[in-house]
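The data are quoted verbatim for reference:
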Amino acid sequence: MPSKLPRGTMLSSAPALLPSSGKPDTDDSISGCSEWLERQEEQEELVKKWQKIESHLIDEHRWFQLSDQECAILPEAAKLHAISERLDELYARNQRLLTKLSNGVATTPRGVACKLAVALALVHPDENKDAHRLIQSALRDAENISLKIRE
């Protein structure tokens, strides 16, 4: 059964899905995944911003019919360029961190849940619905198991 939460909500709340032991987290996966998810969220917001600006340019300026010189004089073009550069930077940083996370070992249930949250972000439901739902299910299972252990 698919989650009723919007995709972004599930991803951003995943590190908090499992109760903390009350002790400081010693699992590096938690902080690494949280960092990755924050950047992913920023990327998604920037893509929405890009789409809004581009839609305006298409509607108001026939964006794709303009020459490079005509595009360059529009103030929105500078905004698109800045967004593009930031997206490239975020993507590169997340790729480096993803390699580190993939090679690292989660040492707590929260660390495992955080790694699953990153996997969920990487497997978009439109690209692989079954894998996306499997990862969602694994996150819910991890939460339920953690709650039972605490009882």
In short: Residues 27-150 form one domain. The radius of gyration is 19 Å. The CA atoms of residues 19 and 147 lie 8 Å apart.
